[in-house]
Amino acid sequence: MYLRTGVADKELVVNTIPSDERRQKGPYVFIECYQEIPCDPCTKICPFGSILPMDDINDLPRTDYDTCTGCTICAAICPGLAIFIIDETYSETEGTVGIPYEFSPLPAKGDVVEAMNRAGEVICDATVLRVNPNKKRQSTPLVTLVVPKELIMEVRFFRLKKNAADALPEVDPYDEENLPDSTVICRCENVTLGEVRALIDEGYDNVDEIKRISRAGMGPCQGRTCRPLIMGEIRRKTGKEFDEIELGAFRPPTKPIQFEQLMGGEEDDN
Amino acid sequence: MLRIEEHPILTFDKSKTVTFTFDGKEIEGYEGDTIASALHAAGVKVMGHHYDSGRPRGFYCAIGNCGACLMVVNGEPNIRVCVEPLVEGLVVETQSNKGDLV
User: Fold this and answer.
1) Is-cis flag, bond preceding A228, omega within 30?
2) Best residue in A187, A192, A221, A225 for a mutation probing chain B (most B CBs within 10 Å)
3) What is the torsional sign of CA A256, A257, A262, A263?
4) Where are the domains of chain B?
5) Cβ distance B86 to B29 under 8 Å?
6) pLDDT-based confidence at A255, cuts 50/70/90?
7) May I ask the CATH class of domain A176-244?
8) How sure is the predictor about A134, in pLDDT bands with cuts at 50, 70 and 90?
9) Which end of chain B is more exposed for a tag (fewer CB within 10 A), N or C?
10) Which class would CATH give B17-93?
């Protein structure tokens, strides 16, 4: 489920929750890192050695909750923004969650924001207790929210309250009306949506055929931009689903280099 | 001005200016800029033209993959200016064909 939706479910989360005794002792780090990827800055940065060394760089991080002080250093360095600082001793009914937040503007202390769960659904209002912008170290700001205790293992993100005046009109970028024929689909070879539409109408319904006729996808980027757009148009016009449409041949993007770079080995041979 | 003034994480050092020319016009950027970022900040949005149709091409992927920003730099054609560091005194020109070597 997690691999399909990207939303960690309870079974994954409970695996790494510390003991009830530790949870009552004060702030601790909670790492929501559930997929093996080659990444280990958290194990190197912890001044207390609380994020245990990995045998393999692909290992999931493991926390020694007995030595962790909840100091927040690891939360600011995690490139995946997967590290949270939780304190369940804030008050009788409330706890705090420290959330890495890389958006502008940052909220201010005392602001009320909309707290969200792992799936991005707003679940409650929360008050901002602290903001550590950490300006000097150029690292991720950590925003600490006060949330009801029963939601402490749910709140993992937040958004500022929407100001009705700032709201942008909602536009569906894939709505056909928003895509006139003059839209450039392949920037490298200057192929427009109108040309692609005409080819699909003629019966060409896969990326490679359209590429050979129109040159869409033959420029320097080799289809990085236009392939998904052409597939989207084939889907719209023919009703085929994406997995029924042939992807066509993938080739690496081309990069202009000097002859000098190709001939550089000659000197070594002499 | 199209520069990011406020960023949630990064700060930008603008202490050293770098001067270069674009189609004969003198333009200033900062040390650490790429040619494309300095041009874009100076309001230059057309970096070249499609070799066949002549349609304008601008700053697009910004990581050296799309090939939309090929320009002539110090007389050398087909330079991806989005990944080329800005150096004092560079001569940058727009390119409208596939690039001439001589």
Assistant:
1) no
2) A187
3) positive
4) 17-93
5) yes
6) confident
7) mainly alpha
8) low
9) C
10) alpha beta
Backbone angles phi, psi at A196, to 5 degrees: -65, -45
Give the pTM.
0.71
B26 SS3 class: strand
Instruction: Flag whether pLDDT at B2 surpasses 90.
Output: no
**Amino acid A166: pLDDT:** 72
CA distance linking residue A37 with residue A17, whole number of Å: 21
Contacts of B7 in chain A (CB under 8 A): 104
What's the CA gap between A145 and A132, in Å, rounded? Answer: 12
Tell me the residues of A at the B interface, defined by beta carbons under 8 Å apart. Answer: 101-106, 135, 138-141, 184, 187-190, 219-221, 224-225, 253-256, 258
Cα–Cα distance measured from residue A122 to residue A51, given in angstroms and rounded to the nearest whole number: 31
Strand order in the sheet with B70-73: B25-30, B17-22, B91-93, B70-73, B76-80
Distances (CA, A) of A79 to A51, A54, A100, A248, B79: 15, 17, 10, 34, 32
Nearest to B47 by CA among B61, B34, B57: B57
Query: Rounded to an integer, what distance in angstroms lies between the CA atom of residue A32 and that of residue A49?
Result: 18
Q: Which two tokens stand for residue A241?
A: 């689903």
Residues A184, B6: C-beta atoms closer than 8 Å: no
Average pLDDT for A156-177: 78
Asked if B64 has any chain A CB less than 8 Å from its own CB, the reply is yes
- The domains of chain A are located at 2-162, 176-244
Closest CA to A142 of A150, A133, A151: A133
Q: How far, rounded to the nearest angstrom, does the alpha carbon of residue A119 sit from its chain's CA centroid?
A: 13
Task: State the alpha helices, DSSP H only, in A27-72.
Answer: 41-45
